[in-house]
Amino acid sequence: xxxxxxxxxxxxxxxxxxxxxxxxxxxxxxxxxxxxxxxxxxxxxxxxxxxxxxxxxxxxxxxxxxxxxxxxxxxxxxxxxxxxxxxxxxxxxxxxxxxxxxxxxxxxxxxxxxxxxxxxxxxxxxxxxxxxxxxxxxxxxxxxxxxxxxxxxxxxxxxxxxxxxxxxxxxxxxxxxxxxxxxxxxxxxxxxxxxxxxxxxxxxxxxxxxxxxxxxxxxxxxxxxxxxxxxxxxxxxxxxxxxxxxxxxxxxxxxxxxxxx
Length: 261
Fold this sequence. Notes:
Blueprint: H1 2-11, H2 17-24, H3 28-42, H4 55-58, H5 78-93, H6 95-98, H7 105-117, H8 129-143, H9 147-154, H10 161-181, H11 184-207
Helix pairs in contact: 2-3, 3-5, 7-8
C-alpha cells in the first residue's frame, strides 16, 4: 500500500499532459477526448492519444520515454490505475468548464504594477488619487511610458523633451523583449528548465531523504522505508457564540494552473 501511495504521489504532479490539453484544446469535445487519453498514456496505452500530444504516435518505431515519470518508463501498477480512474473521470467530465481557462500571469503583472503606484503601506482607499493611479497603471501597461507626454499635451503643458526620449527608449526595450520571447532558443530554454525540474522531482521521490540538500549534516537519515503519505486535513465547521459571521477574504497568490498540476 505504501508503494502505491508513493507512486501516486510521484505520478500525479508530473503528468504535464494536462497542461498541454488545457493550453491547446479550444473545443469541449477535443479537450474531453485528450483528458480521457492522459491516464492510459501514462500506463503505456497510446490507443486514445492524439499525434500532436503523444510522441509515440508521431514516431512509433522509436522507443518512447516518459521523461516526467520515475525511471522514465510507463507505470505498470494495475491497482494504482484503478484508483486513478475515478479521479480522471471527474476531470474529463468537467471539460466544458475548462475550455475557457487561461493563465493569470497578465493579471498578476497588472497587480504588480498597481502596487508600485499604490503601495500597501499607504492608504489610498478613501482618496481620489486611487482612481488616477489605477488609470495611470492601465495606460502604462497598454501604451508604455508615452502616456505621460500625451497627458501633458492634453493639459496644455510641455510634453517634455527628455520624457519623450526616455519613453521611446523604454518602448524599444519592450519591443525587443517581446521579440526575444518568440525566438525558438527562448522557448527551448523554458522547455529544458521544465524537464530539469521534472527530473529532479522524480529523483527526490525515488531516493527520498538521500536526495535532499544538506543531507550530510543530518545525524539520522532513513534510507530504507518509504515515507507515509501526507494525511488529508480534518476541517470542522466553526460555531459562533454570538453575533453574525464576519466576511473572510482569501488572497490565493496564484500565477497559473500549470504549477498545481
